[in-house]
Write a structure and sequence with these properties.
Length: 205
């Protein structure tokens, strides 16, 4: 298991999109945490990235770590930095009345599951979303993604409800489950300021 302090979480850049897409496409091909059936092209995935970062001005992170691989000789090793996962928040709904509610998305390179990285990235999203002024965060998981459900409840999300059998993938029906976390002052009062657009140069942590 890789210790948590071995990961560096930073803002994603356009140069990371290929690696981010590679992680996502694994889940398209192999798992049901996304019900997308065909791998998006690099052009399409770049458009999705830009929509979050440029249009919505929301945070998009990658977690990197260094792995060692055998070198040319028996005693040498080569260090390579890889993207172990990515995470971002996006608007829960594009209708303007939902502007204080965001939704989290986290995907990990399968090689780095089970080492606490998902928790690190979710904590980062919660912290930053709160400082931006969001009042609610929604988590949406497929019904057979128990690990994601546990991650959300562990970090204070309340389980809301399940919608059964609304998607079809790999010859099986799949439902979705929704979780909700109040951020900052939640619904205790009405916001007096708009959401502060994400600024990569600001110190949110």
């Amino acid at each position: 298991m890789i210790p948590n302090n071995s990961f560096i979480i930073r803002d994603a850049t356009i140069d990371d999109v290929q690696s981010i897409r590679d992680i996502y496409c694994h889940y398209v091909r192999e798992e049901t945490c996304t019900v997308e059936l065909a791998e998006p092209s690099l052009e399409e995935f770049t458009s999705r990235f830009n929509h979050i970062v440029v249009n919505e001005r929301n945070p998009y992170y990658v977690a990197t770590t260094t792995i060692k691989t055998p070198g040319d000789s028996d005693s040498s090793q080569t260090e390579t930095t890889v993207i172990a996962g990515y995470a971002y928040i996006h608007l829960f709904n594009s209708r303007s009345g939902y502007k204080y509610t965001c939704e989290d998305t986290i995907y990990l390179n399968p090689a780095f599951k089970g080492c606490g990285l998902g928790a690190l990235m979710l904590k980062r999203l919660i912290t930053v979303a709160t400082k931006m002024g969001y009042r609610q965060m929604i988590g949406c998981t497929s019904t057979n993604n128990e690990q994601s459900g546990r991650l959300h409840t562990k970090h204070g999300f309340q389980y809301l409800h399940k919608i059964n059998n609304i998607a079809l993938k790999f010859g099986q029906w799949i439902g979705v489950e929704y979780y909700q976390l109040a951020l900052g002052e939640g619904d205790s009062n009405l916001p007096t300021s708009p959401i502060i657009p994400y600024d990569p140069t600001s110190n949110y942590i």
